[in-house]
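Interim report, section 4.2 (structural modelling).
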Amino acid sequence: MGSFKAYFIKENKESIRNHKYLILAVGFIFWALLDPLMLKLLPLILKTSLPVDLASLISNITRDVAFQSLLKNLFQIGTLFVVFSLMGIISNEVNNKNLIFPYSRGLKPAGMVIAKYIHYLITISLFILLAFLTNYFYIIRLFDGGVLSISIVFKSSLLYMLYYAVLLSFLLYLSSLFKKSIVPGIITLVLGYSLSILNQFKNVRSYFPNYLLLKAADIKNIFDSSLVPTVIISFFIIILLVYLSISHMKKIDIA
Amino acid sequence: MIRVVNLKKNYGHLEVLKSISFEVEKGSVFGFIGRNGAGKTTTMNILAGLIKFNDGEIFIKGKEFLKHKQELIKSIGYLPETPAFYNYMNAYEYLNFIIEIIGCNQKNKDKQIAGLLEMVKLTKQAKRFIGGYSRGMKQRLALAVAFLNNPEILFLDEPASALDPEGRMEMLEIIEGLKDNKTTIFLSTHILNDAERVCDKICIIDEGKILLTEDLSRLYEIYMQPIFDIEFEKDPKFDLDLLKNFKWIENIKENGKKISLNVKDINYAKNEILKQLSNLNNTIISYQIRKSTLEDIFIKVVNRNGII
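Predicted structure of the assembly:
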């Protein structure tokens, strides 16, 4: 428990003093603010230069479409922010030899790894929720039509949180394996983006975490039975990767 | 207190530790000396539980280290050669962070931290970010981290390397004080004068092999061989060839116009040396016979590469 508490507090200090919270906040909340404004202003800006029928298509944006637009952008840009700010979550500690003192004074690797994971999971989840709520309150003021409600926003945010929990576990594990932080960053990005292709295949898509993103955008039917295997597999991946990270950090040469 | 038996460590095909064995008694200061790359830091990192080893056994407080690592590590404090901290923390926060990891008494932690900061003279800088510290200040903070919770065993890797002369003297005084407290200290150092001052036992390691492990007093008895220091008016390099031919001269150390002679038979040398020097076409400015220092012994042992 001592190792967990020490590293949870340490991660909190590091995130404040090295502006990680700020970077992640920009990655999520900034887009939540910008996206509805852009959707509202874009048709006005392009009004004169577009054919009438096309301009009317753009201007007929409902609340549902505006929310789905945020989801799409958040996945693309939020993932970049998460990956690039957290890709050295463990490897930087090893490379900078920051673990020598803690290990030599009895640090329990499980406490450290779980503290890092939980800390950033809470951080990302909070920013996702904040981003979704901010976006929702903008949308209901700027757009009309659609079925979007606060409960849909909550449900959708839960699926996004679970998706980022999986992504974070990948980042954590790969960062414990590789010394150069860019390697886990690139691999996680490639995995994150490329697995979305599987959403095109109805037979297999529910067995991959990226299906969570597809269902989060399925506003009229977010929670259904097709999510059961996705949720089970996502939790399985998280537990497995966190366990493997701990196991690797127990064996690794620190000095 | 510490028993190392046939310890081996390889990095790929490179054999860094070649089956080393030694024993450190409780409450003693064990000086671990050797050249750069001899295997000192690797040994320390293994004993501090930071890196794995390929073969051999380690016993600390009579218990097998690998089996009881988590329990034993609590009684060990380690000061690495180049300490690394979280630069965005201040000294107080960092010590607090380590106390949390050790899990020691939270009630007295403020008192303990204040005492340690006082000891390492960082009280005034306690609230400054570590990133702004000099190398010497970081070394002193590292010492405070190693001393947290009064460990029974201390591994000190080049503790004085980044300190100014005053800091170095203070460090030696602290080590001497710990000796009285019955703390077992495993000290690696390049500064042989320091080792000579505080160590009870000396272990010389070279190329991953232990060349010698001996009590300091016994070491002097064995190697108490006087050395002839001679200073010439002119560079004596042409005269050295003549001196090298004498079988009673073991080796000659040159240092500009000065030479130091190790001899095989002191009594014979005392009579012979002045006679031979007077034949040289080089004026002698000074001539003295002195006792061997640890540095002389170290050079002799390392040059012989294990043949004592």
